[in-house]
What does this fold into?
Amino acid sequence: TGIFLYLFNLDKRLKNIEKEMNGDTNE
It folds into this structure.
């Protein structure tokens, strides 16, 4: 359904943002 896809994409985006923020300190 639409809401599931929306939540899935939202979670994906949040993880990408976390990765970018953590990437600066990790590298």
About this structure: Residues 19 and 26 are 10 Å apart (CA to CA).
